[in-house]
Amino acid sequence: MTVTSEQSVEQAEEIPSQRVFRVEVMRAVRLSTSFIRVTFTGDDLRYFADNGYDQRIKVVLPHAEGGFHHFPENGRDWYQRWRALPSERKNQFRTYTVRAVRQDQAQVDVDFVLHGDSGPASRWVARAQPGAPAILVGPNAAYGAVHGGLEWRPPAEATSVLLAGDETTVPAITNIIETLPAGVRARVLLEVPAADDALPIAAGPDVEISWLARGTAAHGELLVPAVRQAALSVAVAGSGADKTLNDVDVDTDILWEVPDPQNGTFYAWLAGEAGVVKTLRRYLVQELGVDRRAVAFMGYWRTGRSEPN
């Protein structure tokens, strides 16, 4: 039987792009002062798509009373059904980046940033023990089209890239630079809380990585000047560059601008604390003259503001 392209589209529409994976903690390994790697396991993870790069997923946390009893099962409308639940029955969830997928072993690694008891995810992961149940909402390998949650979109002809962010971006940036094609020159700047947070990365010879240990400094205090300096040598300004920027109030709105450039030799991916990203956005586009269509700007989080579910 011949399957037409129309039939393939219909089949893809019937299969949700995201799937609810009921898993448990296999192990939790402390990597450094600020990072802990949790390996999740569960038979369904054989169907967890291995997209790499900056693939975002949801980690659903157990409810204090009902565990995961009320969390919706699989289906494209899981989020709508979750929103319809009474507030006292809703599980909290947070967004993270997949660090590794091993479909043949039904395992997924997620690197968490530890920041005390200030957030529900940090509290949970600091106490996570083997066998603890959890839920991941992630890409469904059975889905026949492009999954969401991927923002790394350099043009095919890119030969120079700039990646910068804080500790929340380390898993994404690590995944990206470990898969860069040979010959692509990359300048990478990562601001982290402590010196031992400089995790090992299998980078190629054309990748230059700078780890900036923040210590007691404010977020972005080291990253902003480092990006300003690095951009002078790797960024490409153009006479026809689009320098228009909408003013985003990062205290009330989400700063998230991800272009899909079709050409150009330069591309930048900048993420982390929204106020810092906004500062870098203004510098690169309006001061340095980089085309805003060549840069992805993502406010992963905002100081003093919890992630909305």
Automatic annotation (TrEMBL):
The lineage of its organism: Bacteria, Bacillati, Actinomycetota, Actinomycetes, Streptosporangiales. PROSITE patterns: FAD_FR. InterPro entries: FAD-bd_FR_type, FNR_nucleotide-bd, Riboflavin_synthase-like_b-brl, SIP_FAD-bd, SIP_fam, SIP_rossman_dom. It comes from Sinosporangium album. It comes from the Bacteria. This is NADPH-dependent ferric siderophore reductase, contains FAD-binding and SIP domains. Pfam families: FAD_binding_9 (PF08021), SIP (PF04954). Residues 18-149 form the FAD-binding FR-type domain. SUPFAM superfamilies: Riboflavin synthase domain-like. One of its GO terms (molecular function) is oxidoreductase activity.
